[in-house]
Amino acid sequence: PQSTINNEKARQLEDFLVQKFPLLYRFCEAILGALTLKLDIEPQRIDLLLLVLWFHKNGAISQQQVTRAIILAHGYATASSIANVANRLLKSQLFESFDMPLDVTPEAIANQVMAYIESHALASGLIILVDMGSLNAIHRHF
Protein backbone atom coordinates (compact mmCIF):
# COMPACT_ATOMS: atom_id res chain seq x y z
CA PRO A 1 0.00 0.00 0.00
CA GLN A 2 2.73 2.53 0.94
CA SER A 3 4.78 1.81 -2.19
CA THR A 4 1.62 2.13 -4.30
CA ILE A 5 1.06 5.60 -2.86
CA ASN A 6 4.71 6.54 -3.47
CA ASN A 7 4.57 5.21 -7.04
CA GLU A 8 1.40 7.19 -7.66
CA LYS A 9 3.00 10.37 -6.29
CA ALA A 10 6.12 9.79 -8.40
CA ARG A 11 3.94 9.32 -11.49
CA GLN A 12 2.03 12.52 -10.70
CA LEU A 13 5.29 14.42 -10.26
CA GLU A 14 6.61 13.00 -13.51
CA ASP A 15 3.43 14.02 -15.38
CA PHE A 16 3.70 17.51 -13.91
CA LEU A 17 7.37 17.91 -14.88
CA VAL A 18 6.79 16.61 -18.42
CA GLN A 19 4.02 19.12 -18.93
CA LYS A 20 5.61 22.08 -17.15
CA PHE A 21 9.19 21.65 -18.43
CA PRO A 22 9.11 19.48 -21.59
CA LEU A 23 12.47 20.68 -22.98
CA LEU A 24 14.24 20.34 -19.64
CA TYR A 25 12.69 16.91 -19.12
CA ARG A 26 13.88 15.69 -22.56
CA PHE A 27 17.31 17.18 -21.88
CA CYS A 28 17.58 15.27 -18.59
CA GLU A 29 16.42 12.08 -20.33
CA ALA A 30 19.21 12.59 -22.87
CA ILE A 31 21.79 13.12 -20.14
CA LEU A 32 20.77 9.94 -18.34
CA GLY A 33 20.60 8.07 -21.66
CA ALA A 34 24.14 9.11 -22.53
CA LEU A 35 25.35 8.18 -19.05
CA THR A 36 23.65 4.79 -19.39
CA LEU A 37 25.48 4.10 -22.65
CA LYS A 38 28.85 5.50 -21.69
CA LEU A 39 29.15 4.48 -18.04
CA ASP A 40 27.11 1.28 -18.04
CA ILE A 41 24.75 2.44 -15.30
CA GLU A 42 20.99 2.03 -15.09
CA PRO A 43 19.35 5.17 -13.67
CA GLN A 44 15.96 4.87 -12.00
CA ARG A 45 12.91 7.04 -12.69
CA ILE A 46 13.57 8.95 -9.46
CA ASP A 47 17.03 9.90 -10.82
CA LEU A 48 15.36 11.58 -13.79
CA LEU A 49 12.85 13.42 -11.60
CA LEU A 50 15.55 14.64 -9.22
CA LEU A 51 17.77 15.78 -12.11
CA VAL A 52 14.91 17.79 -13.66
CA LEU A 53 14.12 19.38 -10.29
CA TRP A 54 17.80 20.14 -9.63
CA PHE A 55 18.31 21.82 -13.01
CA HIS A 56 15.09 23.79 -12.59
CA LYS A 57 16.05 24.89 -9.07
CA ASN A 58 19.44 26.05 -10.34
CA GLY A 59 18.01 28.17 -13.12
CA ALA A 60 18.40 25.92 -16.15
CA ILE A 61 15.22 27.38 -17.62
CA SER A 62 17.00 30.63 -18.43
CA GLN A 63 20.27 30.33 -20.28
CA GLN A 64 21.33 33.64 -18.70
CA GLN A 65 21.20 32.15 -15.20
CA VAL A 66 23.28 29.00 -15.79
CA THR A 67 25.94 30.21 -18.17
CA ARG A 68 28.46 27.40 -18.29
CA ALA A 69 28.83 23.72 -17.53
CA ILE A 70 31.83 21.45 -17.96
CA ILE A 71 31.77 17.69 -18.45
CA LEU A 72 34.94 15.82 -17.45
CA ALA A 73 35.11 12.13 -18.32
CA HIS A 74 37.64 9.36 -18.81
CA GLY A 75 38.06 8.15 -22.38
CA TYR A 76 38.90 9.68 -25.72
CA ALA A 77 35.42 10.95 -26.64
CA THR A 78 33.08 10.28 -23.71
CA ALA A 79 32.72 13.86 -22.45
CA SER A 80 32.61 15.20 -26.00
CA SER A 81 29.83 12.83 -26.96
CA ILE A 82 27.68 13.68 -23.92
CA ALA A 83 28.23 17.42 -24.39
CA ASN A 84 27.45 17.19 -28.10
CA VAL A 85 24.11 15.46 -27.49
CA ALA A 86 23.14 17.89 -24.73
CA ASN A 87 24.12 20.96 -26.76
CA ARG A 88 22.21 19.73 -29.82
CA LEU A 89 19.09 19.04 -27.76
CA LEU A 90 19.28 22.46 -26.13
CA LYS A 91 20.22 24.15 -29.41
CA SER A 92 22.81 26.04 -27.40
CA GLN A 93 26.46 25.63 -26.48
CA LEU A 94 25.94 25.25 -22.73
CA PHE A 95 28.29 22.31 -22.14
CA GLU A 96 32.04 22.27 -22.69
CA SER A 97 33.78 18.90 -22.64
CA PHE A 98 37.15 17.72 -21.43
CA ASP A 99 37.99 14.16 -22.43
CA MET A 100 40.57 12.53 -20.20
CA PRO A 101 42.60 9.76 -21.82
CA LEU A 102 43.77 7.26 -19.24
CA ASP A 103 47.38 8.43 -19.54
CA VAL A 104 46.56 12.07 -18.65
CA THR A 105 46.86 13.13 -15.02
CA PRO A 106 44.08 14.85 -13.08
CA GLU A 107 46.48 17.78 -12.60
CA ALA A 108 46.71 18.24 -16.37
CA ILE A 109 42.93 18.25 -16.69
CA ALA A 110 42.66 20.69 -13.76
CA ASN A 111 45.08 23.01 -15.58
CA GLN A 112 42.91 22.86 -18.70
CA VAL A 113 39.80 23.62 -16.62
CA MET A 114 41.56 26.55 -14.93
CA ALA A 115 42.56 27.94 -18.33
CA TYR A 116 38.94 27.61 -19.45
CA ILE A 117 37.70 29.40 -16.30
CA GLU A 118 40.17 32.24 -16.80
CA SER A 119 39.11 32.76 -20.41
CA HIS A 120 35.30 32.65 -19.96
CA ALA A 121 32.85 34.90 -18.14
CA LEU A 122 31.34 32.80 -15.36
CA ALA A 123 29.41 35.41 -13.37
CA SER A 124 26.45 33.04 -12.98
CA GLY A 125 28.58 30.14 -11.83
CA LEU A 126 29.99 26.94 -13.20
CA ILE A 127 28.71 23.38 -12.99
CA ILE A 128 31.36 20.67 -13.24
CA LEU A 129 30.13 17.14 -13.98
CA VAL A 130 32.64 14.31 -13.56
CA ASP A 131 32.32 10.62 -14.31
CA MET A 132 34.27 8.74 -11.64
CA GLY A 133 37.60 7.80 -10.16
CA SER A 134 40.38 10.37 -10.07
CA LEU A 135 38.10 13.07 -11.45
CA ASN A 136 35.92 12.91 -8.32
CA ALA A 137 38.78 14.53 -6.42
CA ILE A 138 39.78 17.03 -9.12
CA HIS A 139 38.76 19.95 -6.91
CA ARG A 140 41.93 19.31 -4.89
CA HIS A 141 43.98 20.47 -7.86
CA PHE A 142 42.40 23.94 -8.12
Description of the molecule:
The chain is α/β, with parallel strands linked by helices and 142 residues long. The chain folds into two domains: 1-60; 62-142, Phosphotransferase system, mannose-type IIA component (Rossmann fold, 3-Layer(aba) Sandwich). 54% of the residues lie in helices and 13% in strands. The chain has a three-stranded parallel β-sheet with strand order 2-1-3, with helices on both faces. Helix 4 (78-90) links the parallel strand 1 (68-74) and strand 2. Helix 1 crosses helix 2 (22-39), helix 1 (2-20) packs across helix 3 (45-57) and helix 2 packs across helix 3 (45-57). The longest helix is centred in the first third of the chain and has 19 residues, at 2-20. The radius of gyration is 17 Å and the shape is globular. The N and C termini lie far apart (49 Å). The model is unreliable at 62-66 (pLDDT under 50).
